[in-house]
Amino acid sequence: DAKTTQPPSMDCAEGRAANLPCNHSTISGNEYVYWYRQIHSQGPQYIIHGLKNNETNEMASLIITEDRKSSTLILPHATLRDTAVYYCIVRVYGGATNKLIFGTGTLLAVQP
Amino acid sequence: DAEITQSPRHKITETGRQVTLACHQTWNHNNMFWYRQDLGHGLRLIHYSYGVQDTNKGEVSDGYSVSRSNTEDLPLTLESAASSQTSVYFCASSPPGQDYGYTFGSGTRLTVV
Fold first, then answer.
1. What pairs with residue B94 in β-bridges?
2. What is the pLDDT of residues B53-98, one digit of tens each?
């Protein structure tokens, strides 16, 4: 599975959009991009995933560049409850390799 | 509602003892996973299973074992607990295939003294 690079920490003002970048320059054509977050002491929570197209759900939007070498997770209106570690993960499709390998993620601190 | 539960939430044990951490899910998911989380290391995969009687080693499997006798449960056993195994342990499950995220349990905090 391709490796990802994320900044270790970011700040965001409450009510503003939080844009979390992720670099995955060695991603393969059959690898998906997944985002999870972990709020202090809790189990990680699935946010969103995508392959090529931009995706949006009730939690966030995922923007993947055309060459798929990087992506951005967007939280449109960050709240204090969004303070968490955000993990960007890429993985190959298929049951034999259907496991998530976590990096160290980005600690997003939403400031009042 | 379907859920994934871990027990116990907290445990203190002595070096050298055998310890088993429970993970039970009612999602009927084929895939189950165990991770440990330590400061500075993020989440690391210990063992995983794609179905009954299937088990696989992850990144940090030494000193741990799992067994999968049914769909709902994947207990994690520390054969002889060591202080280096003091950690927070998370269990997760998912259906097969790519388009599904994992569902994680609330974690077990294990202290080996």
1. B31
2. 999 999 899 999 999 999 999 999 999 999 999 999 999 998 876 5
Residue of A nearest to B43 (CA): A102
CB neighbours of residue A51 within 10 Å: 15
B97 touches chain A (CB under 8 A): yes
Residues linked to residue A98 through DSSP beta bridges, in sequence order: none
Alpha-carbon gap, residue A91 to B31, rounded angstroms = 15
Contacts of A95 in chain B (CB under 8 A): 31, 50, 96-97
Q: Which two tokens stand for residue B90?
A: 């998370």
Q: Is residue A82 helix, strand or coil?
A: helix
CA dihedral A59, B98, A43, B10 (to 10 degrees): 160
The pLDDT of A107-111, averaged and rounded, is 96
To the nearest whole Å, the CA of B50 is away from the closest chain A CA by: 7
> Which tokens go with B85?
């195994």
Helix, strand, coil percentages (3-state) for chain A, rounded to 5, are 5, 45, 45
Pick the closest to residue B51 from B72, B79, B75 (CA basis): B72
Q: What is the pLDDT of residue A97?
A: 53
Distance from CA of B65 to the nearest CA of A (A): 18
Residues whose CB falls within 8 Å of the CB of residue B2, separated by 6 or more in sequence, listed in order: B25, B26, B27, B28
DSSP string, A14-46: TTS-EEEEEE-TT--TTEEEEEEEE-TTSPPEE
